[in-house]
Specification:
Elements lengths: L2 H12 L7 H8 L3 H13 L5 E5 L5 H12 L8 E5 L37 H10 L6 E4 L2 H8 L7 E6 L4 H11 L3 E9 L12 H12 L3 E5 L8 E7 L1
Helix pairs in contact: 3-4, 6-7, 7-8
The chain binds S-adenosylmethionine.
Amino acid sequence: MTLVDRAIRRARRAAGHDTPDIGSEMARRDARWDTFCRATEYINFEAVPGDIVEFGVFTGISLALLARAHRCDPKEMTRRVAGFDSFRGLPGSEEPHARWQAGDCASNHAWHPLLTVGDAVTPDVTRRLFEECGLDAPLLHVGPFADTLPAAFPAVHRQVALAHFDCDLYESTRDALWALAPVLQDGAMLLFDDWFHYRGHPQKGEARALSEFLAAHPQWGAVQYQPYSTFCNSFILYLR
Ligand SMILES: C[S@@+](CC[C@H](N)C(=O)[O-])C[C@H]1O[C@@H](n2cnc3c(N)ncnc32)[C@H](O)[C@@H]1O
């Protein structure tokens, strides 16, 4: 149990709730929770301004955990939590993967507090999940990234402090990084959920997208922060 969980449990007990909440159960089951706590503590302590955005929302668990981690100790940093997803499953890719197929993730395939396996994935599932967790409603940009990214950056999100890339594919991660370019802040935290997929190949998937982004934007450098869970890695961006 992290310090964040202890603080949330104390607050719930003080408010008269004895049972663990849905958020605690999600956190307990998700190997990324500790890193989400550290990443939000880092952006809040370092006062990196801007929103928390996620590319690849699916059933909303990681977006809700990021919001929960931030809310526990925001250190007076005001941030919106936003997610981008078509909610139609993965598009195709030029890079074949051992397991992923176009259309994967259109329905639920794992434990979820509100869904059973096979249920349809919709934006309302994420909205309901936030409500059940007692979190402020997230801003959801619904549609293929090609449609939603140009409208969102910089018009809706003028600054971004933390980006969570969980859209699996090279093309989707590349498009998200390029759209973020004008709003990324010095010290921004980049979390990559699928970094070591494609058998860890540095020129495939999310690793390829970041390496091409850095080559095309020489004003940015990236320092590795922490690898986490099985396939994930994280970086802090700095202005050279
Ligand atoms: C692995 S799931 C995300 C899981 C979620 N972050 C979690 O941990 O619960 C990947 C999601 O990325 C979305 N996605 C990938 N590429 C996309 C694109 N180009 N446009 C819109 N959505 C995309 C898919 O629809 C899918 O829901």
